[in-house]
Records
---
Amino acid sequence: MQRNLILLGAPGAGKGTQAQKLSALWGIPQISTGDMLREARRQGTALGQKAQAFMDAGKLVPDEVVIGLVEERLGRPDTREGVILDGFPRTIPQAEALDRLMAKLKREPVWVLAIDVPEAELQLRLGGRRSCPKDNTPYHVKFNPPRQIGKCDQCGAELFQREDDRPEAISKRFAEYQNKTAPLVAHYGTRAKRVDGTGALDAILERIQRALVG
Ligand code: AMP
């Protein structure tokens, strides 16, 4: 059975953390447009340069840029058994493009899961978030710390704080989320299942799995 899953949720809701767990559990790739864009920036590609100013300002990158990235990624063979989309779609035009793409690639329709976390908690989470530049493993200095301070558990790389996890960009990202991404839950209607994204990471993972079978 093919599993194609979209994870929706505000910045800091835990999409990346849960996507990584589900990816390991199901043996299918996590596709994070945020990670792909950060990688393009690190490599200094034309696309990375184009995305940089939007990302640092906490704004969404233009639809055609991310749609092109996802189209290319979904064309690769490792996606045939399914994918976990983390951070895409983030606008209604992106959701419409995804439906067209899945139909063109003859993939099964996607499951949609929205992770709910109150805004006050999101603020706390984003301030302490750290990431691995090599394998993108997400951490939090307090809620999900690495075994050794500042170092990735998986590969030992020095963790970094994202530019857009600083206070000025955070408020812009929330505004973008409210205006452009939150309407996707209504857009998907009954296709979208909702789960409470607070509490222990493994408890959230269980809730997600239960919501998808139920
Ligand atoms: P994320 O790591 O998912 O929080 O994404 C970081 C940043 O990358 C976002 O604030 C946007 O600037 C950009 N980005 C990632 N995914 C998308 C998307 N689907 N549409 C537009 N911009 C995106």
---
Amino acid sequence: MSSTVRERELLDNVPKKLLIGGVWREADSGARLAVEDPATGAVLAEVADGGPKEMMAALDAAADAQRSWAKSSPRLRSDLLRAAYDEVVRRADEFALLITLEMGKPLAESLGEVRYGAEFLRWFSEEAVRMGGRWNRSPEGTTRLLTMKDPAGPTLMITPWNFPLAMATRKIAPAVAAGCTMVLKPAEQTPLTSLAFAELMQSVGLPVGVLNVVPTTRAAESTSAVLQDARLRKLTFTGSTAVGKRLIEASSSNVLRVSMELGGNAPLIVCEDADIDKAVAGAMLAKMRNIGQACTAANRILVHESVADKFAGNFAAAMSAQQLGRGTETGVQVGPLIDERAREKVSGLVSSAVASGARLLTGGSARIGEGYFFEPTVLTDVGEHDITREELFGPVAPITTFCSDDDAISKANATEYGLASYVFTENISRALRVVEELEFGMVGLNQGVVSNAAAPFGGVKHSGFGREGGAEGIEEYLSTKYVGIAP
Ligand code: NAP
């Protein structure tokens, strides 16, 4: 089967309606939103475009299902998640192609996302039957203290476009395990993967109303009434810090439980004693995963002045060898950016940094022609500039030097963000000292990837609060209840 026939067949089979209360339906207005292939600009499919009315109907369905879902057995929820894991793994190629089509990353990376996204289903299938409580005698011995966990309740989940499957499963899997019902609002650019995944959850037997999905082009307008509805008990958001701040404010009058996975501005520190080959390989991963469009992306490469030339030369060589193209093509390592706006932002930051004195080692330009491609770019001699202050979200690496560990730590921490950070050193004492002083929720020590379903993913400062994955992940969806019992 030719690749385009396979793509057409896959796209034809993806649901393109809203999922509300177990029923696939159009928006009442009949509105539809177009999903674009960022590698070509072509429209891949049109999907029902929900509004406030549909979002409220989705909350109605989630609220109606909450009571019986909360009573379902942990084993049932565990088995459902395990069946979903098996099914995602069985259909991994299909999901990978869908991610590549609507988001742009190369197929091999999309497959990586599918495996990562599936791991949350497996991990939380194991956690679902391990939720504990406590039983103690009060200190004075006069009463008994029973501590138990209840599901937090109906949850609104808002996800970004950069990991269309994994950002959804990282929320849906712990919510299922905990017994919460859900309304998922996927990003406007990438609703297809979420809709396909919701259909998969239906196919493995998730009860009606537990997961509802409403794509929309009117995110703020569509979610505002739901956020004020007393039946909603939790908001979990992954996206930019600017939108996260607005949602924290919007959720305050309803006193919602809130989890915020927001933007990052990760430093990657290469110490004087680092293994340079390891550091270059780690920097390639930390920078280029998802075409630089990851919240964990290394935005600022900080290199000790004694090894800066060697590191920069090797790193620039690796960056310039990367092959650009549509993610479905063999050998392609770098896909397009998500849209023209994203490319203009990256392009503007690079030109302005160069105009301010930064030196281009490789790349620096948008690729002419269809799609939103930008060349892998390395800059050195980057002084104080927005390119190191803002989240870049593109295949661009600004290198800055430092002269001591303290200098590296203070430069790394000089940001309002606090999500991921990376350190490369062969000296264990230095490693521990630097790791302890970094004000970030996650540190990759001699490795360029921190994401793992078994680890608590999340940030500090303006990168948000709450953790996804690990033993902590399920707690975000549980409320603690204590019962005092007279003996
Ligand atoms: P975004 O613009 O903040 O959008 C994220 C989601 O929020 C989308 O579904 C969007 O809908 C929705 N949204 C936007 N404005 C809203 C509003 N006023 N009310 C309700 N929903 C609203 O972010 P993005 O560009 O999609 O994603 C990139 C950002 O996500 C980066 O900052 C990145 O660092 C961050 N991110 C963080 C993590 C993490 O775990 N910390 C992981 C991945 C990404 P529309 O699509 O319709 O605009």
